[in-house]
Design a protein that fits this description.
3 helices; two-stranded antiparallel ribbon; alpha+beta; 6-stranded mixed beta sheet; globular; 12 strands; tt1808, chain A
C-alpha cells in the first residue's frame, strides 16, 4: 500500500478564513506556507510606496491598487503580493474576495526571509501566471527592479538604487524618489530614567 499526501486546493485554502495573528499564509503547490510578519524596513517601504502609488493611480483615474490580497495562481496556488494594481478597464473582472485574474502589476517587497521566494519562486509564478508587470523592491540593498511580460517572459524595464528617482512601467510618468522608501533608524532615544 502506498500512502501519499493530498494537496489542498485554492478553493479549500480560501475557505480557511483569516490568517492567525502575526503570520501570513500562502498556498504553494497545495501546501500551506507560513511567513512571519514584515520587519520595520519592509513595513515602512510598503507604507510609503503604497501611499505614493495609491495617490497617483487615484488622482489619474488609472484603476485601483490593492495590498496583501489572496491571489489565485492555479488550482493549488494562492499568493499574497504586497501590492497589486488593476487598470480601470479590467476592474469589472474582479470578484468580491480573492483575486482570480492576473494583476496588471504585482509588487513584492523583499524581507530577509523572502529573498529566494520573491526573486525566484514568485518571479516564475507571476511570469507563468501572466502578470503584466512585476516590481521587486529590496529595502536591505535599497534597490527596485521592474519587469514586463513580453512573449511570455519577463524582460527588465528599469531599476534604481539608493537615492535615485526612477520611472517604471506601467506608470512611466510617475517619479519614484527611492530615498523616501528606505527606513533610516533615528538616533536611539534617551532614557526616561531619572
Amino acid at each position: 500500500m502506498t500512502l501519499g499526501t493530498i494537496k489542498m486546493t485554492a478553493k479549500q485554502f480560501l475557505q480557511m478564513g483569516e490568517d492567525p495573528p502575526g503570520v501570513r499564509l500562502e498556498l504553494v503547490n497545495g501546501e500551506v506556507k507560513v511567513s512571519p510578519s514584515p520587519d520595520l524596513r519592509h513595513s515602512f517601504c510598503d507604507s510609503i510606496l503604497g501611499a505614493l502609488l495609491t495617490d497617483y493611480v487615484r488622482d489619474n483615474g488609472l484603476g485601483v491598487l490593492f495590498r496583501d490580497i489572496d491571489t489565485v495562481f492555479g488550482k493549488h496556488d494562492v499568493r499574497r503580493p504586497d501590492m497589486l494594481y488593476f487598470a480601470k478597464r479590467r476592474l469589472h473582472l474582479l470578484g468580491d474576495k480573492a483575486v482570480e485574474i492576473p494583476p496588471d502589476l504585482c509588487i513584492e517587497i523583499v524581507s530577509p526571509s523572502s529573498v529566494a521566494v520573491d526573486r525566484k519562486q514568485k518571479f516564475k509564478q507571476y511570469e507563468k501566471g501572466k502578470v503584466a508587470h512585476y516590481w521587486i523592491v529590496d529595502p536591505a540593498s535599497q534597490t527596485i527592479e521592474g519587469y514586463k511580460l513580453v512573449g511570455g517572459k519577463y524582460r527588465p524595464t528599469g531599476h534604481g538604487k539608493k537615492n535615485e528617482i526612477v520611472r517604471l512601467p506601467p506608470f512611466p510618468q510617475l517619479n519614484i524618489p527611492l530615498a523616501d522608501l528606505w527606513w533610516r533608524r533615528p538616533n536611539a532615544p534617551q532614557s526616561f530614567e531619572k
